[in-house]
Amino acid sequence: MQCANMLLRKILRSSVLPFAAQHGMKKDLFPLSRTLSLSLCLKQDKSEPSEKLDLDEWKKVMKSGLQEEVSETVSEPKELSSLAAARETLEMWRLAGRAVPENISEVQLKTFMECPSKSAKKKYLKYLHLKELHKKNDKRKMDEKRERRLEAKDQASNTDETKKSSFLCLWSSTMDRAYNWRAAQSMIFGQPLVFDMSYEKEMSVREVTNTVRQIVLSESCNRKSVDPFHIHFCNFKDDSLYHREFINQYREAWGKLLITVTEQCYTEIFPKDKLIYLTADSPKVMKTFDHNKIYIVGSMVDKTIKTGVSLARAKRLGLETAALPLEKYLLWSTGAKNLTLDQMMRILLTLKDTADWKKALEFVPKRKYCGFVNRPVKELKKTLDLINTLKLGKGWEEVETRFAKNHPKK
Question: What is the pTM of this model?
Answer without folding.
Answer: 0.53
